[in-house]
């Protein structure tokens, strides 16, 4: 259930007691005065459709905290500490001097709901509208482009872990699949004595390449056997989590394997491939995360964040989160798209674009010409 702020101020309301100390024109003063208009209840109504349960932290409070968190680069815990002890934060979020903190995980919870919604960037969109309406970057003729890799909180999974986890997920998400697993997926149990009710790694001699290949063969055999027993057409047509689960199982069952030596795959013998699939899923927990190579020495797993910033004010006017691989997610392609769609740039306005060598390419110029 969505929570709402009480419009009747408390005795120790920070804005009432010390609001005059806020610097005029600051973000703190803006949020303190216009928080409820910037982030009205209707803005977050779709995140709480049931209307039942314990009321959440009001959306205007969370949105204000997220804006300040992004501005200062705080972690969730640091942001909540600031809201607890910094009177400017309390004034901006409508808190009283003695108001208690909420748990830092609340910010994670809200971001997860926003990320899964139809408008995941709604808070940023509101801030960008304010930038445009106030003319904060009007007539500013420069934009800086940059990108960075954001680490994913999900640990990388190996081939065996992904296959076991995804077969178990299909059992949870798809109708009678749990019963079918016991009937169709028998190769793992025959080899190791462990079935798919266990979450631990199968007990084999992991330092023996032959044993590992046998395990991979068993898992790769069980996955298509389960898929063949399901009504894939009906599941795909229905969509939702069941369709996502079977599609991901089919993907992870083939992305990391190749026929074993002296085999063409028809005899059911497989091994882990001696190469990495171009668009390899690294975790079934977060299928969109990918391997990233910001430099040759620095290897990460996660996503790539792209931003457009007006350098004089430091205001971000556009942003995008993409996978780390694929030509469509290159700095040149995404950067050109962001610059040409920046609503704070007037039509026909000459613009100087600043960026590092990743953007100084013929591909970038080609993309800009195509999009303008």
Outline:
This protein has 372 residues and is of the alpha+beta class.
- CA-to-CA gap between the ends? 45 Å
- In total, the number of domains comes to 3
Category from helices, strands and their pairing:
alpha+beta
**What general form does the structure show?**
globular
Sequence of secondary-structure elements? HHHHHHHEHHHHHHEEEEEHEH
Specify Rg, calculated over alpha carbons.
Answer: 26 Å
**Average pLDDT metric:** 87
Q: Bin the helical content.
A: 40-55%
SS summary, helix count: 15
Low-confidence stretches: none
Q: Tell me the strand percentage band.
A: 5-15%
Number of strands: 7
Account of the protein in words:
There is one protein chain. With 372 residues, this protein is α+β, with helices and mostly antiparallel strands. It has three domains: 14-134, no CATH class; 159-272, no CATH class; 291-371, no CATH class. Helix content is 44%, strand content 12%. It is built from 15 helices and seven strands. It has helices at 14-18, 27-38, 59-72, 76-85, 87-93, 105-115, 122-134, 159-173, 177-184, 187-192, 209-229, 232-238, 240-255, 331-340, 362-371; strands spanning 142-151, 257-259, 270-272, 290-293, 299-310, 315-322, 352-354. The strands form two sheets. Strands 1, 4, 5, 6 and 7 form a five-stranded mixed sheet that branches. A two-stranded antiparallel sheet has the order 2-3. A hairpin with a 4-residue loop joins β5 and β6 (315-322). α8 packs antiparallel against α13, α11 runs antiparallel to α13 (240-255) and α12 crosses α13 (240-255). The protein is globular. The protein starts with 13 loop residues before the first helix and ends with a helix. The model has no long low-confidence stretch (mean pLDDT 87).
């Amino acid at each position: 259930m969505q929570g709402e702020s009480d419009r009747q101020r408390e005795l120790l309301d920070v804005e009432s007691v010390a609001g005059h100390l806020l610097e005029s024109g600051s973000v703190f003063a803006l949020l303190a005065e216009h928080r409820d208009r910037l982030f009205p209840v209707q803005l977050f109504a779709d995140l709480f459709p049931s209307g039942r349960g314990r009321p959440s932290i009001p959306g205007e409070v969370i949105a204000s905290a997220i804006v300040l968190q992004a501005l200062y680069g705080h972690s969730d815990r640091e942001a909540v500490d600031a809201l607890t002890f910094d009177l400017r934060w309390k004034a901006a979020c409508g808190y009283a001097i003695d108001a208690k903190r909420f748990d830092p995980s609340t910010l994670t919870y809200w971001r997860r709901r926003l990320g899964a919604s139809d408008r995941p960037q709604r808070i940023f969109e509101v801030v960008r509208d304010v930038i445009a309406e106030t003319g904060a970057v009007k007539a500013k003729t420069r934009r800086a482009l940059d990108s960075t890799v954001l680490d994913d909180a999900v640990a990388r999974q190996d081939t065996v872990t992904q296959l076991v986890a995804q077969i178990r997920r299909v059992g949870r998400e798809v109708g009678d699949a749990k019963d079918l697993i016991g009937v169709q997926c028998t190769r793992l149990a025959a080899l190791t004595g462990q079935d798919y009710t266990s979450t631990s790694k199968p007990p084999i001699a992991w330092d023996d390449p032959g044993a590992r290949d046998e395990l991979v063969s068993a898992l790769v055999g069980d996955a298509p056997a389960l898929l063949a027993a399901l009504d894939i057409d009906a599941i795909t047509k229905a969509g939702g989590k069941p369709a996502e689960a079977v599609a991901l199982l089919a993907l992870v069952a083939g992305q990391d394997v190749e026929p074993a030596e002296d085999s063409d795959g028809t005899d059911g013998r497989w091994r882990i491939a001696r190469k990495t699939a171009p668009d390899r899923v690294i975790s079934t927990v977060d299928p969109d995360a990918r391997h990233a190579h910001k430099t040759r020495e620095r290897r990460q797993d996660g996503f790539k964040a792209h931003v457009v910033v007006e350098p004089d004010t430091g205001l971000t006017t556009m942003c995008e989160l993409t996978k780390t691989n694929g030509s469509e997610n290159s700095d040149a392609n995404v950067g050109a798209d962001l610059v040409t769609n920046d609503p704070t740039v007037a039509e026909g306005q000459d613009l100087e674009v600043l960026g590092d060598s990743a953007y100084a390419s013929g591909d970038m110029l080609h993309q800009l010409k195509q999009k303008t």
